[in-house]
Specification:
Blueprint (H helix, E strand, L loop, with lengths): L1 E6 H5 L4 E3 L11 H16 L6 E10 L10 E6 L1 H20 L8 H8 L13 E2 L2 H11 L10 H13 L5 H9 L1 E8 L6 H8 L8 H11 L3 H19 L3 H17 L8 H9 L4 H19 L6 H12 L6 H12 L5 H21 L6 H8 L8 H11 L9 H10 L8 H9 L13 E4 L9 H7 L3 H8 L6 E4 L2 H4 L4 H6 L23 H18 L7 H15 L12 H15 L6 E4 L4 E4 L3 E7 L4 E5 L14 E2 L11 E5 L5 H16 L1
């Protein structure tokens, strides 16, 4: 590798072509970056004391020393945004000089032939800068003054137009002088000696400037020969980008996190997806990996971006999107793969999706904490018996306890009657499902507004006060936003705070409403606590059917309990030679404290250690003769340990998982130890 400070135009000048590899992201500078660079160049061009302006680095290597032409092709792996933008500025300046006569030490022809074109070459070699796909076509059309097609690169054309619009006779000379004084670190790599991927990561601070998706794509393609790069990109990566469309940038990182979670049963930190991918890909064939990613990305796009072509599945996916069950997507990807590979039918897939929908909605109504839901879904797929797909899945979910529980009918019906549904995030979804239950003709509730039968006005009129009785304020406070008092109407403003009789009898009121939600109201002559409770009871029973509980028989549930017991009982406390006396006392206390950290924490007795895990192990305890040795599953560099009590065992052979080790031989040290264990749990939960 050779790195020198160089004038940018000197780097570009001469017979050569800078090629943006197909794996690099497209040109993405916004106007804000262009304004800043344009301003910086003008400052340099007008300053008498400035020796130049540094714009960063340009890193490139020659793909082959066996060129069949006199124009070496140099592949840029860092600096394409800067180089492309400077070329757009030069092109804008050359076009300005064509049309305007000013006293300047260059002309349009020199600018084009020195810095934009290899004037003696034909075809693609004629261009000093060769971009990718739409960027390439748009840039070449600008150079040749050709019209742009409808689908061209907006970034290229808009940024070029910005430079054209801001060039004038007052600043053209300063702009040229400034361009002449741009400097870069010119980094030339030798392909056979330098590792472009490692240098690329270093130059980009492992993802601070690029997205995780960019880094992964480059990791897959960068080390391949050009023909292989093009083949992999055209066959797999580009169709995937097209499938995601405008959502590629915003969704791909999250997809890769879910993909890796599904494949490894470990949830990577969203900012560490690239490193997790490298670990996953180690030793696997690149084409197999990218083919797998492409296939799973189509599942993700069908579910999350609603590109599914089957209407039944699309409807189910939309329901899940409304409920925002992002944490379930690793599990759902595995289900979709089974469906795609015809392990299960569409009907079974729909049943499984409905189980997830019911589970999430019931928990939301009952206010069950969601902090461990990602870990619950992560391990759920392992519980499925392919020969009894729905039974095994439903049984496992029904057996969940604590914060993982699937709320049963008594809890669900009790909570849905008293919950503030008016301010519930998913109220439209809820009301739509209730209204359309057993309807053949779907009613779009977007055409209606939510109506409080007993009005919201804190100063209820005397008619309402008389109807509700002396404790009307208490009743209003208790029932106002609850299930029994909410309905839908297209006449909200007309009904407003009017009496119940008016709301019934008014044209378009409850008596003439075609909505199922208003059916009970048509049978009432007044509206009071008794009717609110009775209506809520009826609607809650309907809700318990719509969002059904699994209701697996006790006999079948016992089969799955027995499986769990057999798996858990292979080893137990008596298996460990040194778990006795004082060491056993310490273990029992620390074990209790660990299990209290979170409902999702599981304990597993292994042959040589005891593991505590959520989605993956966060601490393992190895009983020893005079102490307990703890392995904490987190990088040593991430640990907060001001007293330096822990030991870095990275890359050292140890029983247990993790890079951090600490010992304990006294109950008095448990509080300190628990702080480190909490750090390890928090790290795994990120």
């Amino acid at each position: 590798m050779k790195a020198t400070s160089a004038n940018l135009l000197s780097v570009i000048k001469g017979p050569k072509q800078f090629v943006i590899p197909i794996y690099q992201r497209t040109y993405s500078w916004q106007l804000v970056q262009c304004r800043q660079l344009f301003s910086d160049i003008l400052k340099v061009g007008t300053s008498k004391s400035s020796s130049g302006h540094f714009v960063g680095s340009v890193v490139y290597f020659q793909e082959s020393i066996y060129n069949t032409t006199d124009v070496p092709q140099l592949l840029i792996i860092d600096g394409q945004q800067r180089v492309t933008t400077v070329c757009l500025i030069i092109l804008a300046l050359s076009e300005f000089l064509k049309k305007n006569e000013i006293d300047i030490e260059t002309n349009a022809s020199k600018l084009r032939n020195y810095y934009l074109l290899n004037s003696d070459e034909d075809g693609d070699l004629r261009y000093k800068l060769l971009l990718t796909r739409k960027d390439k076509e748009t840039y070449i059309n600008l150079l040749n003054d050709h019209p742009q097609p409808e689908k061209h690169s907006q970034r290229i054309s808009e940024n070029y137009q910005y430079f054209v619009d801001n060039l004038n006779s007052e600043n053209a000379i300063a702009l040229y002088n400034g361009i002449m004084n741009l400097f870069v670190v010119d980094v030339t790599l030798e392909k056979e000696k330098d590792n472009p991927q490692l240098i690329f990561e270093s130059m980009n601070s492992t993802g601070l400037d690029l997205s995780q998706a960019d880094l992964i794509r480059n990791y897959i393609l960068m080390g391949q020969e050009i023909k292989v790069q093009n083949s992999l990109y055209e066959k797999y990566w580009f169709p995937m980008e097209q499938n995601f469309g405008n959502d590629y940038v915003s969704h791909f990182d999250r997809f890769m996190r879910d993909f890796l979670s599904a494949k490894t049963s470990t949830i990577p930190n969203i900012n560490n997806v690239y490193n997790a991918f490298k670990s996953f890909a180690n030793g696997l064939l690149i084409e197999d990996i990218v083919a797998d990613i492409t296939e799973y990305s189509s599942y993700y796009a069908n579910m999350v971006l609603h590109k599914e072509t089957n209407n039944d599945l699309k409807h189910a996916f939309k329901n899940l999107s409304i409920l925002r069950v992002d944490v379930a997507y690793p599990f759902l990807l595995s289900l979709y793969n089974d469906y795609s590979k015809m392990v299960i039918t569409k009907d079974i897939f729909l049943e499984a999706l409905k189980l997830v929908e019911n589970y999430v909605f019931r928990r939301a109504i009952c206010g069950v904490p969601t902090n461990s839901l990602n870990k619950t879904f992560l391990i759920l797929y392992k519980s499925i018996n392919k020969q009894a797909y729905i039974e095994s899945l439903a049984s496992t979910m029904q057996l969940f306890g604590g914060y993982k529980r699937f709320p049963p009918d008594n809890e669900f019906m009790r909570e849905i009657k008293v919950k503030d549904l008016y301010n519930f995030r998913s109220k439209s979804y809820f009301l739509s499902k209730i209204e359309n239950y057993k309807r053949k003709e779907w009613v779009s509730i977007s055409e209606y507004t939510v109506e409080h039968i007993m009005p919201q006005n804190k100063n209820l009129n005397t008619e309402w006060q008389d109807t509700l009785g002396k404790n009307w304020k208490e009743l209003q406070s208790t029932y106002l936003h609850t299930l029994g008092n909410l309905t839908l109407t297209g006449y909200n403003s007309e009904l407003s705070d009017k009496s119940f009789t008016h709301k019934k009898m008014h044209a378009g009121g409850f008596n003439s409403s075609p909505l199922n939600l208003n059916a009970y109201l048509r049978t009432c002559d007044e509206w009071n606590e008794s009717h609110i409770q009775k209506r809520a009871e009826g609607l809650s029973e309907k809700a318990s059917i719509i969002w059904q509980y699994p209701n697996i028989s006790e006999e079948k549930l016992q089969l799955y309990r027995d499986v769990e017991k057999r798996e858990a009982n292979e080893y137990n406390i008596s298996h460990y030679e040194y778990l006795n006396g004082e060491i056993l006392t310490i273990f029992e206390e620390i074990r209790k404290r660990i299990l209290e950290l979170d409902e999702s924490v599981k304990e597993e007795y292994k042959k040589l250690y005891i593991a505590y895990k959520t989605s993956t192990n966060f601490v393992d305890i190895v009983p020893q003769k005079s102490r307990l040795r703890l392995s904490l599953n987190m990088p040593f560099s991430e640990l907060i340990d001001p007293d330096q009590l822990c030991k870095d065992v990275t890359n050292l052979g140890r029983w247990g998982n993790g890079d951090v080790e600490i010992g304990i031989n006294s109950t008095s040290d448990i509080n300190k130890i628990m702080d480190f264990i909490q750090q390890a749990l928090d790290y795994q939960d990120q």
